[in-house]
Amino acid sequence: MEVRSVDRTQFGAKLISPAKVKYKAGKYWKDLDVNFIKFETNKVADRSKLDAVSYLWDGKNLSSSIAEEANILGGSSNVYGLTLQKTNFENILPDHILGLMTTSKVKKGQAEDIEIFKIGTNPKFAYEQQRRSRDIKHIAATLLASLRALAGGKKSPKLYVHYADSQEMKFLNKVGIETKSADAVKVIGK
Q: Which of 44, 58, 120, 182 has a 20 to 30 Å separation from 51 between CA atoms?
């Protein structure tokens, strides 16, 4: 009797929807097709992909915090991303990830309020780090628009961030996210 070993490693982000960002083509910005995905953080292999993204981004732009959150919370963590990858989502390529975001639980089509915990862009394309030399833009805005589309029912959900850093307030308000400045929060006991 022959007993075969079966590799039962299950992983793979879930494709949510196609999306568009802008890429630089000479002097002009043109649409670039990307995909909005959700990582299955209950699976070790998906969490290892987030660790690989953090490594590639050198831990910058909240990538290490997002990977750490997924590793600590496992399946309770809601991690979304934008990828250049067009197929084979059961094997996400970390070097194709443009942006990551963690949120509270999202119910498809329910239009309930959603808290954004962390949002980060690949440092090669982040506005703050590459203002003049980046060749892809609107990554964070596309993550948020794709999340709204996923959660939207008859009305658009309210996206909000608690205790936003004052540096982030301008961007968050520009894309329609309610914010509360960390600078305005009173520290209990002081």
A: 182
